[in-house]
Amino acid sequence: MTLTWCVRSISFTTMSSLKTIIAGTLVLLAASPLMAQTASEKNKKPNILFIITDDHAYQTLGTSKQDSPVALPNFNKLAKQGMVFDRSYCANSLCGPSRACILTGRHSHMNGFVFNGQHPLDGSQPTYPKMLQKAGYQTALFGKWHLESNPTGFDTWEIFPGQGSYYNPDFIIPKPDGKGRQTKRFPGYATDVVTDKSIQWLENRDKDKPFLLVVGHKAPHRAWCPALRHLGKVNTSKLTPPANFHDDYANRPEFLKKNQQTVARHMAIYSDLKVLKDQVPEEMRKSIVSPGYGWDLGELGRMTPEERKKWTDYYAKRTKSLVDGMKSGKLKDPKAFAEWKWHAYMEDYLGCLLSVDDSIGRLMKYLDKEGISKDTLVIYCGDQGFYMGEHGMYDKRWIFEESLRMPLIMKWPGKIPAGTRNNTMVQNIDYAPTIVSAAGADTPENMNTFQGISLLPTAFTNKKPDQWRDAIYYCFYENPGEHNAPRHDGIRTDRYTLSYIWTSDEWMLFDMQKDPMQMKNVINDPAYKTTAEQLKKRYQELRKTYKVPENCPGGKGTPIPKFDATW
Question: To 10 degrees, what angle do helices 431-438 and 95-104 make?
Fold first, then answer.
């Protein structure tokens, strides 16, 4: 009765206001789950899929007409859905050291892993997977590790011994009781096996937790052995070697002439180029093999009889083309023979990339099938650059652009603008802080361990942030070494590459705007005197900023310091 009276006593205006309030309240109540869900989604930690290949040259990334000597549809699709970083550089162009820089976000002299084979990586130091573990992530690593120690920071890991093998690869895995490790062989092609293991882990993970998955491919590392299904799939007949393929190394430091990674003189005729020794006339063998470069291919011993027959049948055709060319005289000219080698090299190298493209397709399809693509940050990178015959070379190591610059693609739907190319100067020491920031684990304690910078500000806007770096620092230590590249360090700015060769006490300066192929050293050119002085000053400033020891990387004959991992 009282309630009725109260309602009847309310004026029409008041009643209308009350109805408005009630309606508004009902709308808010109905929307509250959606609002909560939106807030929850906003704060949701992304999954992180980090794909790392070995020795992938940016000239073969497959994302545009400029970098696609062979069709790589899944790389192309990834680029269209994400962002390609056109100026990502490595800190030390060698597999293990580069991976240590990626893992720790610090330069080689700070993480202690300066070249392969010196000593295992100190696994007790801060790394991005450890930080993500503490932030509630489940973490896994499959494939190439190459840091000579057991991985730390990963709940699950299965890694190749050393470089790993292409065919029927071995994996080092923890023993079931957690005490020690064991080696097991798995049938199949390495890229496929790593992808299988990665997807199986994704299927069996705790799907209520975010994940970090590192997929480490061997391809396209030397000796460039494609999957058997890809033999004959790459036609290089329309490709031509780089314009400086027959580089005579004039106008540059004398030590460059001593390099031992040329296509013409230093590729192993049997293992690198797959020439079948028993099908080459004995009297011809000495004329086609550079002294010390006739190694046999160990991968053959890993194949089943059926696999080996298919492989041998295919490479018999290449061997015949070489033998016929030598007999006819077409390949007796050193330049013609070098170009024949280059075509063989490119066919196998690009053939290895076809399997990586397949892998990316499978992984992206899995994310789509599970409905988690929009919640996953995908990062693809090579571990440094690689020569596709530039300067007549293969491999990496030197500060030349082809080995210094490395592939990087990032995809994060709704966060990173799709189909964009980023021209900001970044470095592989930036990848760890980027991952940690994306995961929301960017506490001062974590971020202060890094020498790199999170790429999220430039990735989200596709603009160079204020106060960004004006140069990157590079340092290479491995001399003496397999390819006789010198110990050297230097800097890369927007326009210039400056380097000091410690092994031979020589300087290099290249104007990348006027001389992008780095054919003329202008360090002593009077026109560049002021520029050289300014760059040398900046070089010393960066050495100080990054706490580079005074005698580092050291001159000829100087023992390499056994750096402690300090941070």
Answer: 30
Distances 495 to 425, 470, 492 between C-alpha atoms, Å = 11, 10, 8
Specify whether the CB–CB gap between 385 and 93 falls below 8 A: yes
Dump pLDDT digits (tens) for 175-224: 988 888 999 999 999 999 999 999 999 999 999 999 999 999 999 999 99
Residue count (the chain):
567
Which strand ranges, in their side-by-side order, compose the sheet holding 408-411? 181-185, 170-174, 156-159, 138-143, 211-216, 47-53, 376-382, 408-411, 83-85, 420-422
- Report the alpha-carbon distance of residue 416 to residue 17 in Å, rounded: 45
Which is nearest to 399 in space by CA: 297, 540, 502, 303?
A: 502
- Cα 167–chain centre separation: 22
- CA proximity to 164, closest of 241, 253, 21, 54: 54
Q: What is the C-alpha to C-alpha distance for residues 294 and 270, in angstroms, rounded to an integer?
A: 6
Q: Is the pLDDT of residue 252 over 80?
A: yes
DSSP H helices, 454-505, are 456-461
Phi, psi of 10 (to 5 degrees): -80, 135
Round to whole Å and give the CA distance between 29 and 51: 44
Cis, bond preceding 187 (omega within 30 deg of 0):
no
SS3 assignment for 523-565: CCCHHHHHHHHHHHHHHHHHHHHCCCCCCCCCCCCCCCCCCCC
In the prediction, which pLDDT does 179 show? 85
**Full DSSP string of 219-285:** TT-TT----GGGTT----TT----TTTT---TTS-GGGGG---BHHHHS-TTTTT---GGGS-HHHH
pLDDT at 560 over 60: yes
Distance CA 507, CA 425 (A): 23
Residue with tokens 């470069």: 293
SS (H, E, C) 348-401: HHHHHHHHHHHHHHHHHHHHHHHCCHHHEEEEEEECCCCCCCHHHECCCCCCCH
Give which of 122, 129, 101 is closest to 450, Cα–Cα: 101
Is 50 exceeded by the pLDDT of residue 168?
A: yes
Q: Could you identify the residue written with the tokens 């790993």? A: 164
Per-residue pLDDT of 32-66, as tens digits, reads 444 444 444 556 899 999 999 999 999 999 999 99
Radius of gyration of the chain (CA): 27
What is the C-alpha end-to-end distance of the chain, expressed in Å?
A: 77
Task: Dig out the tokens for 109 from the structure.
Answer: 């002299």
Nearest to 358 by CA among 554, 215, 556, 515: 215
